[in-house]
Amino acid sequence: MSLPSLGTTYHRTSYPAISPSQTALSQAGRTVLITGGGGGIGFEIARSFAKASASRIIIIGRRSALLDEAATKLREEFGTNGATEFIARQGDIGDDASISSLWEYLHSQGIFVNVLVLNAAFFGPNGAETLLLDKDEIMQAFQVNVGGNFLMTTKFVHQTLRPSIPAADHRLYLLNVSTAQIHMYPSTGSDTYGSSKAAWMAMLSRIADKSKVDELQIISYHPGALYSEGASKYIDKDLLNWDDMSLPADYAVWAASSEASWLHGRFVWAHWDVDELRAAATDATNEVGKQMKDDEGYLKVGVLGLPSVSLKTYMKE
Questions:
Q1: What is the per-residue pLDDT across 172-208, written as a single tens digit (0 to 9) for each?
Q2: Rounded to 5 degrees, what angle do the CA atoms 99, 102, 105 make?
Q3: Alpha carbon of 151 to those of 12, 116, 157, 272, 317: distances in Å?
Q4: Where are the transmembrane segments (predicted)?
Q5: Catalytic status, residue 193
Q6: Which residue among 53, 197, 220, 300 is the active-site one?
Q7: Contact 211, 153 (CB under 8 A)
Q8: Of 14, 48, 53, 178, which residue is the catalytic one?
Q9: In the chain, how many H helices and how many E strands?
Q10: How many CB atoms lie within 10 A of CB 38?
Q11: Is the Cβ–Cβ distance between 118 and 174 less than 8 Å?
């Protein structure tokens, strides 16, 4: 079975166009905050931003020991006196007080965040019939995957230090590490995870619709099939053909650049070749280009088989 792609090339590992070593993708002078940054894809994203010379990388998560270990590994790899400062900070995006405390700490330290990577997630029960799920577990998924990400986003956009930052550095980049489950039909795996991630993707698309891309650039993407500590709890390693972590990690760096501004508010797969996709999106004779131009809901959460509908549809002429 072929996997969804908007081009002929399907990547399973990083490639030159998204390499952090590219000058156009440099993150020099920026502070990057990554939720769930202590392990798995979050840790690899931190490595890629360090390769792109980010000035400061903050990794947060619930387990302090894991975060400290991750920060030590990063310092050992990139040097304690290198271009990047690494900060590990305990925090739970499922807890409003914890989120507020995090941003209060950043403000107290005079730290302004330029790039926010929403990577932490609650996976919930796996494989159970939907109507046999526990309501509290369902709501916990939405508390983290929707509520937590929403509060992180509002704190990010409304940073109290923003007025004092030079205008040239005001542009913010928000990366939403999503999942292919938001458009799988029939659905597979955890209903709570897929449904809550779809709900957040829908809300984030609407936030993007109201945001100017040169002020707040928002991109959501499916990182691929990645074998991590979290994945190991639900699936056997030998069952899938796993993707290399370098693909979604380097993709995050590309997505946090003006090179990706034309994807503002949309959902894509890290596997899709960015050059092919950009060529198709800017070609008015190409089906992808037509839909990018004519359908505001293209590559966003909606109803399969129908173009998006706006309020304009119901307005009197």
A1: 999 999 998 887 765 655 678 889 999 999 999 999 9
A2: 150
A3: 33, 12, 10, 30, 39
A4: none
A5: yes
A6: 197
A7: no
A8: 178
A9: 10, 7
A10: 26
A11: yes
